[in-house]
Design a protein that fits this description.
Strand order of the largest sheet: 1-5-6-4-7-3-2
Shape: globular
Helix content: 25-40%
Strand content: 15-25%
Structural class: alpha+beta
Number of strands: 19
Distance between the termini: 33 Å
Length: 662
């Protein structure tokens, strides 16, 4: 079982629902009707049944056949560590643990034993997590036997209403939770416990990390955790999510049968969202840990209320934000290809640790160049975009990339995994993330993306990237090394403020080739063909000895996979050659191919989905790749260039060494 902080409470820049935006067949291209104005609410996906019981519990049901004979069940409780009283710190997470240790209808480990008996493995499949604002129970169930489904719903009901808090079981579980707290204290966790309270300073979030306090976990009385459960595990704060190979009518009947009788307390405690005050001054925080593995700079700007997500106007703004984020990311990637890059990796994010709030952050993993060059490079690219915006070429390529990605997602819409859909519905319940459905999103995407101009993007960017005078928290984390000077808090802030005073000029876009290959290779000849009806394969042998096996499948609608291999690998290398053989494929990843570095390749391939990459194992080597059917020719050209024209130059070798040594 996880706590949200244990998995570093990832901040997402772009809601994952973007991956499902649709684009494909022109006959589905109606214009927006008069009711679909920018201030109107987005509709719900017609394929999902959303209901509400009289006690306030909300449910989501969708039939989905990927994978077959399986249903994903979730109990979502709109309550996490932020709702703990001072004497309950850590007990939201502890409650999650106790849910697996006995309830009205299941003694001690009966839940885990039953689920394992039907092929649901604890940890890998069956799980739960606790965050600041929510607790989610994860229950995937095979659907071949009706009695297993019925019993699974009984488990959900027991979790929601009759978890047992036997004092003996609580005492047994203390050791488990305390060990989880102790074992989770790696370098990242230790540094996080210092940085997060500073990032969330002035908010209750700063004092409510989900793992809690050791002194509370060791000594709390059963009545204290029972109080948390009775206060917050109530139907008006719950949702049941059901997605998979199950009859929706049957699923809805099970929900009503198991959850309609649940009642909230007579005088329920109000479920209020905790605020995050705006930062009033700029500060810096340096945190080191001897076991840390990398140095990181993170510039955090003030939290602000998160933008509305529920309207057509909000949807359009999300596309603007996505265009901006992608174009700025491309520029950061270009800096990484320089002979002396200012950082190993850098990015900008929108997001937040507190529900209902978001902030703009810029972060970079440091190279051997050190702290100041990383800050200057990070700030310069943000200021360049804010002051001068982007170019028509950048915008055109990014639109093509987004459109192509969405086209593929639309074509694969009937292959969407149930677990992915479940996550969308959970976010809708907890955060009001819209779920209009892929067919509706197709219309909006076509309408809005086509209308967005460069002037509009650049105006949005100039307003979105914070100016230097805004209060900021600059955080440095990483190991202390003999050959690395760690700055003081004062030095770190001074470097950042100085970086904002540097002069920046408009972005200059270099020309890139229009084709991957100047001329096609000499075609080979087929010398033999045969079919295997049992396997459903065709085999072709060419005159150069290459043997090709073709196998049609229906696993994906818009994807072709290929993989080639030959015996050999690093086993063919001498002792002196072994390191070079082991790093050869990494050089291709860093250097690119055909005279194009990875950034230029990405630009050239905008609007296409095709890739090919080499691999060298102990006893085999080869090339693997994938493409949409329309882009297979491009993928095969990449395959050819991997074999014949990798960019293995001295400059690429030096760049690889810098990446590997940090």
């Amino acid at each position: 079982m996880n706590t949200l902080n244990k998995v570093t409470m990832k901040v997402s820049t772009i809601k994952s629902s973007l991956a499902f935006f649709a684009l494909m067949i022109m006959c589905f291209l109606p214009t927006l009707n008069a009711q679909e104005k920018l201030n109107e609410k987005l509709p719900f996906d017609p394929q999902v049944k959303i209901g509400k019981l009289s006690n306030g519990l909300i449910y989501y049901i969708r039939k989905n056949l990927k994978p077959e004979n399986k249903v994903e069940l979730r109990l979502v409780v709109n309550a996490g560590s932020i709702l703990e009283d001072d004497d309950q710190q850590g007990l939201a997470h502890f409650t999650e643990h106790m849910a697996f240790n006995g309830s009205k209808n299941f003694e001690k480990n009966d839940i885990v034993s039953f689920l394992q008996s039907i092929g649901v493995e604890f940890g890998a499949d069956l799980n739960a997590y606790t965050g600041f604002d929510e607790t989610v129970y994860i229950l995937p169930i095979p659907t071949e036997k009706k009695e297993n489904i019925e019993k699974a719903f009984q488990i959900l009901e027991d979790w929601a209403s009759t978890v047992g808090f036997d004092p003996l079981e609580i005492d047994k579980e203390r050791g488990v939770v305390l060990e989880e707290e102790r074992s989770g204290r790696g370098a990242e966790e230790r540094m996080m416990r210092i940085t997060y309270p500073k990032m969330l300073e002035g908010s209750k979030y700063a004092a409510r990390l989900p793992i809690g306090k050791v002194e509370v976990l060791k000594s709390f009385k059963p009545a204290v955790i029972t109080r948390f459960y009775k206060d917050w595990y109530r139907p008006d704060l719950m949702a049941i999510v059901i997605v998979g190979d199950i009859d929706p009518v049957y699923a809805e009947d099970l929900i009503k049968r198991h959850f309609s009788h649940l009642k909230s307390p007579a005088n329920p405690r109000p479920r209020e969202n905790a605020g995050v005050p705006a930062r009033k001054k700029s500060e810096a925080l340096v945190v080191t840990d001897r076991e840390a593995t990398h140095h990181l700079i993170d510039i955090n700007f003030p939290y602000r209320p998160a933008r509305d997500q529920t309207t057509f106007g909000a949807y359009r703004e999300l596309l603007l934000r996505s265009l901006f984020a992608s174009m700025l990311s491309q520029r950061m990637q270009e800096l990484m290809q320089k002979e002396e890059p200012p950082f190993l990796y850098a990015a900008n994010t929108f997001g937040g640790l507190a529900r209902g709030y978001e902030s703009y952050n810029a972060y970079a993993y440091l190279s051997k160049a050190g702290v100041e060059p990383a800050i200057r490079g990070l700030v310069a690219e943000n200021e360049r975009a804010r002051k001068f915006g982007f170019t028509e070429g950048e915008l055109d390529r990014t639109k093509k990339m987004m459109m192509k990605s969405i086209e593929r997602a639309y074509n694969e819409r009937d292959k969407t995994e149930s677990a992915r859909l479940v996550s969308e519905y959970i976010r809708h319940f907890l955060e009001e993330e819209p779920i209009p459905g892929i067919e509706n999103e197709y219309k909006y995407y076509q309408k809005f993306l086509g209308d967005i101009t460069l002037e509009e993007v650049n105006e949005y960017v100039s307003k979105t990237i914070p100016v230097s005078t805004q209060p900021k928290l600059v955080v440095f984390t990483g190991p202390e090394k003999a050959d690395f000077k760690v700055p003081s808090n004062e030095e770190l802030l001074a470097m950042t403020e100085a970086a904002y005073q540097q002069q920046v000029s408009p972005y200059e876009e270099k020309a890139i080739a229009s084709t991957l290959m100047e001329k096609s290779p000499q075609p080979g000849k087929i010398i033999s063909e045969k079919n295997d009806p049992d396997l459903g394969t065709s085999e072709v042998i060419f005159n150069n000895g290459v043997r090709v096996i073709l196998k049609p499948t229906d696993f994906k609608n818009d994807q072709i996979l290929f993989s080639s291999y030959a015996p050999g690998g690093t086993s063919l290398a001498t002792q002196a050659e072994y390191k070079s053989a082991s790093l050869a494929t990494a050089m291709v990843g860093v250097g690119g191919m055909g005279g194009l570095n990875p950034v230029d390749l990405s630009k050239m391939l905008s609007g296409k989905i095709a890739q090919a990459a080499p691999s060298i194992g102990d006893y085999t080597h080869g090339v693997s790749g994938s493409a949409t059917p329309k882009d297979l020719e491009t993928a095969l050209q990449l395959n050819y260039l991997v074999h014949t024209a990798p960019n293995m130059t001295p400059d690429v070798f030096e760049l690889l060494k810098r990446r590997l040594t940090g």
